[in-house]
Specification:
By secondary structure, the protein is mainly alpha-helical. Helix content is about 70%, strand content about 0%. The chain contains 15 helices and one strand; from the N terminus they run αααααααααααααβαα. The longest helix is centred in the last third of the chain and has 40 residues.
Length: about 375
């Protein structure tokens, strides 16, 4: 039997997936439920957004004119925001009780930390000089904030506050908590009963109390157990409390990543003659940390926001400095909402930057993993 050739009918051209119309169709109106939700959200924005813009921009007061702020605040027809409270109080909000004439010092110290954080996030800066650069950056930070040398006026740590204190507590707390968390996670999975019991006790004890309790114990109770005259600086005690608290939560995140590693890989490493620490450093920990990047960044963000609790021990970071700025000023106190919104924007910017960097790390690790898999 001879084969009979039958032509296949022409198929329709594929849908165009580039441009605004395909994006709207696939993202906003893929089906009737999502389309209805899109229409509802658009209607709410159309009703709410003009009022928000009118309050925040068009009818707002940006100068530090208290009379104009009170006038727009009591205007029932077109109320407006008073951003003049930021213009009037931004120095106290950002720098706390630091001497007014030396505000350039905490500003420069904050810029140094921010620049080092940005540089540490860039792969081209992942070189051997980065660790010494961080040591030099912290030395410059403490030199600028503390003073007492090079003609700088001495400022005690109790007067540090605002943005520099928030950045210092978050950066040092996260940097010191991460290695402690890795060791605690490895200790909790250790076959040695004494090491495992000690790590479990530390993690469960710290996770069982709120951070305020840890800060209170570090600031007021810990000095009672020391010899008379031996009292560490309050900033050091608070930093130790934040570090131990963050490390306990982060240790459970790392432990979850370690438990996701197949046992066969660990056994293969042993068969190759690798020791315990070689196995953890070269095989287990790189894969474990890759698996839990979102959870690690979530812990970092939580630590960054938890620095606002140091106000209970009389250290005035951003939120505490704001309360300090408005506490005794009856003229500007009614506009606390705009001031707290300013603080919220600062915190949101920091958290969004960390979240975006986490997404970039996930994409980079995914590409690396695909490249390794293709090579294999």
């Amino acid at each position: 039997m001879s084969a009979v050739f039958t032509s296949i009918p022409a198929r329709a051209a594929p849908l165009r997936m580039l441009g605004a119309r395909p994006w709207i169709r696939t993202r906003l109106f893929p089906d009737w439920t999502n389309g209805a939700a899109t229409v509802l959200i658009a209607a709410l924005l159309a009703w709410f957004l003009p009022q928000l813009l009118d309050w925040a921009l068009f009818n707002a007061v940006f100068s530090n004119d208290n009379a104009a702020c009170r006038a727009v605040a009591h205007d029932a027809a077109r109320p407006g925001a008073c951003w003049g409270v930021i213009t009037e109080k931004y120095r106290v909000i950002l720098f706390g009780r630091f001497p007014h004439a030396d505000h350039w010092r905490p500003l420069l110290a904050s810029l140094i930390l921010v620049l080092m954080l940005v540089a540490s996030c860039r792969p081209r800066c992942w070189r051997r000089w980065l660790a010494p650069a961080w040591i030099a950056a912290f030395a410059a930070f403490f030199l600028l904030m503390r003073g007492g040398v090079a003609g700088l006026t001495y400022v005690e740590t109790a007067r540090w506050g605002g943005l520099p204190l928030t950045l210092l507590l978050a950066t040092l707390g996260i940097a010191a908590a991460f290695p402690i968390a890795v060791l605690a996670a490895l200790g909790r999975l250790s076959p040695l009963p004494a090491v495992r019991a000690a790590c479990i006790g530390y993690i469960e004890l710290v996770r069982g109390v709120p951070l305020i309790s840890v800060l209170f114990m570090a600031s007021f109770m810990f000095p009672l157990f020391l010899p008379p005259g031996m009292t560490p600086d309050v900033l050091l005690r608070v930093l130790a409390g934040i570090t131990l608290f963050a490390a306990a939560y982060l240790a459970e995140v790392v432990r979850g990543g370690l438990q996701a590693i197949p046992v066969g890989q660990i056994e293969a490493a042993k068969s190759l003659g690798l020791g315990y620490w070689q196995t953890q450093r070269r095989i287990a920990l790189p894969q474990a940390l890759r698996h839990v990047v979102p959870a690690i960044m979530n812990s970092f963000i939580s630590t960054f926001k938890d620095t606002s609790l140091v106000t209970v021990v009389s250290l005035y970071e951003l939120t505490g400095a704001l309360g300090l700025a408005l506490r005794g000023d009856t003229d500007w106190r009614p506009f606390y909402f705009e001031a707290y919104l300013f603080i919220a924007i600062i915190y949101w910017t920091g958290c969004y930057a960390m979240s975006s960097y986490s997404h970039w790390v996930e994409r980079r690790l995914a590409v690396s993993n695909q490249t390794t898999g293709n090579a294999r």
